[in-house]
Amino acid sequence: MTERKVRKMLIKELGKKDVALLQTFLLWLTPTALKTWYHYGTTFTRQNVETILANSDYKLACLEKNKIVALGHLHDFAWKFYPEREIHHRRVRICRLGIVSGITGQGYGTLLLMELIEKSRLLKPPVEEIYLSVSAENKAAVKLYSNFGFKIIQEFNDRAQTNYEMVKKLD
User: Fold this and answer.
1) Which among 20, 71, 123, 124 has most CB atoms closer than 10 A?
2) Does residue 5 form part of some domain?
3) Which range of residues forms the domain containing residue 63?
4) pTM score of the predicted model
């Protein structure tokens, strides 16, 4: 029988005052993970990190010992940018759900995904679908998302890698 040490974690919504926390997290990312942050550049200046914090509707971090060990963003693109449109089918997107290299497989991704799905359920007007994209090579993430009811709806190539577009319909 294997035992798993339960760690003390804090789930926190990030805000403007969390720039230094996010900068530290971004410095820990692997080159592969950095690809998802490409449009912010590869140097995470205070201004770049402030832009990251301003450009998502809901930023959720898992903290351990006052350091971010996992991060996820929830975007509500259509509702935010096209309020004049009559939207009958509301969708949100989970972006950049990532775990610090070396500590994967310890439940951080599961915890963040559960929180982001719950946040989606609480939005008004109600959300019907949650979308996300994931590298096809990231088998652990694809399995995690599938276990939460996400289905692959499209395969596409982006920056010389194969990705899946996945969707979860909310009840």
Assistant:
1) 71
2) no
3) 10-169
4) 0.79
